[in-house]
Amino acid sequence: MPPGEHARKGKGLTVSWGWFDSPFGQVLAMATDRGLCGMAFAAELGCDRTLADMRGRWPAAVFRHDPGAVAGWASAAFDAEPGGADSGQIALHLIGAPFQIEVWEALLAVPAGQVTTYSEIARHIGNAKSVRAVGTAVGRNPISWLAPCHRALRRDGELGGYHWGLPVKRAMLAYESARVES
Question: pTM for this one?
């Protein structure tokens, strides 16, 4: 993401989007011409609220319902290694503040089938005292599943929250575990 892009709230961006089936129910996939910028799950909030949530992240962008423009990336996200971590075949366009992007990149380093804590992420980015800010950034992750925020747990090992619903988080962790074990 070029410097200042986050501050423009999506101004100048065209975001194509579509709904797709996934192992975790309906997924909203969004992309710019630079790559996938959003993945969100509707099981907890429903399709309308999920779409509104994601559109609200970049209110100045132009949104175009064009499932064909994002179908390949959406499919590849679930065909890749558990957690969609094989970003070699999926171009990502991370749109967020620099600190958020640093946290999301740290999530990309968590291996499939493993978990981490918000404290470990804070230490990983060199800011051990920023646990709450890390938690907030994890919760604002726009590319769920690909930047595997579902792998972040509380220090006590509890699941904590998940923006798209704890049942989805549990399903993701179980799905990953089964794929890694096989």
Answer: 0.88
